[in-house]
Amino acid sequence: MIDQKLERYGKSDVYPFHMPGHKRQSLGFGDPYQSDITEITGFDNLHDPSGDIKKLQDAWAEIYGAKEAFVMVNGSTGGVLASIFSSIKPDEELLIARNSHRSTYHGAYLRNARVRYIYPETLETTAGPIAGEISVKELEKTLSENPGIKAFLCTSPTYEGIVSDIEELAKVAHSHGVDFIVDAAHGAHFGLDEAGFVNPITQGADLVITSLHKTLPAFTSTALLLKSKTCWIPTKDIMFYLDCFETSSPSYLLISSVAKCCEFVKKKGKKSFVAYHKNLDAFYKKADTLKKIKVLRLPNQDMGKILISGEDYFTGKRLFDILRDEYRLELEMAAGDYCLAMTSLMDTKEGFLRLSEALSEIDESVSEEQKKLLPQNEDSISYPKPISVLSMGEAIEGEKRKRPLSSVQNCVAGDFVSFYPPGIPILAPGELITESVIKVIKEGVRRGLCVSGLDEKGIFVVD
């Protein structure tokens, strides 16, 4: 049973280099069965807050420097959907960064938006290409050539921690009368850490969605939607769409977790971030001594996202498996050429030390014979740039059938195909399945990655 399995796992020595950000450290939460209620007298209502929940939202708004904050209990997904619906009308144009989370695509489909893409710059690393920042120059060009665009949504920080120049992107967007939405799900700590990055809500973004549970000590699926002090979008519209996409029976256990997280940030956040940076600095200093595997340092990267490259010795999945199976370290993600350890201010000195020692041992044990086990002519996994043939709506709602991967070239995708995590589509519905797309999917399968949208029968294509 899953409850017993979770209990055993929680008591094990497996260290969590993955979300949620509380890292299984308690903030003093009591028996959940004693606190699990519905909207009873005296406990306020998330869908019409006027008491304690309203005060909690006001506290978060003050912490981040936002005009308003909206607590969410269904993760950043609900905030992304509500933001899209609040900023555009049906059949209007929405510009999205192609490396956006799948919830962005879902929002575009549900709103019947006409979608345009902007591609992030590519960072060429020893672990292969990684999605970088959104170019300010490219945004200016895209908006100038497409005056019908009403809103722009990008992800910053990315799953790998890459941060775009939000302030300059905001200036460009607003100069064209375009609303600017930032999916900062992985940046809940931005703006709270004096040594870290600024939160996008104070850099000109109109709406910012952030997942408390990813990098702060809050329960899974807790998040905030932040509205800036200069955002024109009516609060009533935002709240209406949040009501549409959020359960009518919100969990007070999750809301309580948001409150405890808020209290922790205000009372212990500053001291905790100082200790966190000390541990991170010590880890990276030790990582610099590695000779064969490598810990990456990328431009404009949140260094709390630790990217570990197997170089010529391990695929990302193989290194991920070694750390889990042999060292009891559970990482967040395995990509084609690297794996990702996700950290937060709740990580312990001992946890960082375990990761450092594991990497050192692996590094010292690697031989040139090991290098020969990894084909040296393999292709790096680089997200292609598919061509849209149909709108997402036309493809999703049209007749579809599954075909094996060997026979889908030049067909039109009928569903999303993505490596999960992180869930960024390799293919979106309506896009042409080219030889390069098939090559990327096959390479992911060969490396043992989880490919969502693909099974033993193949993938959905439009008839």
Overview of the structural elements:
It contains 15 helices and 20 strands. The chain has helices at residues 2-10, 32-35, 52-64, 75-87, 102-110, 136-145, 166-175, 212-215, 235-245, 252-287, 316-327, 349-365, 368-372, 392-397, 435-446, and strands at 15-17, 68-72, 93-97, 114-118, 122-125, 128-131, 149-155, 179-183, 207-210, 223-227, 294-295, 305-309, 329-331, 333-334, 338-342, 400-403, 417-419, 425-427, 451-452, 459-462. The strands form six sheets. Strands 2-10-9-8-7-3-4 form a seven-stranded mixed β-sheet, sandwiched between helices. Helix 5 links the parallel strand 3 and strand 4 (114-118). Helix 10 crosses helix 12 (349-365). The radius of gyration is 22 Å and the shape is globular. The mean pLDDT is 94.
Give the overall form: globular
Portion of residues in beta strands equals: 15-25%
Helical content band: 25-40%
Helical stretch tally: 15
Q: Roughly how many Å is the radius of gyration?
A: 22 Å
What keywords describe this structure?
single chain; 463 residues; alpha/beta; 7-stranded mixed β-sheet; 4-stranded antiparallel β-sheet; 15 helices
A few lines on this structure:
With 463 residues, the protein is of the alpha/beta class. The protein has helices at residues 2-10, 32-35, 52-64, 75-87, 102-110, 136-145, 166-175, 212-215, 235-245, 252-287, 316-327, 349-365, 368-372, 392-397, 435-446; strands spanning 15-17, 68-72, 93-97, 114-118, 122-125, 128-131, 149-155, 179-183, 207-210, 223-227, 294-295, 305-309, 329-331, 333-334, 338-342, 400-403, 417-419, 425-427, 451-452, 459-462. The longest helix has 36 residues, at 252-287.
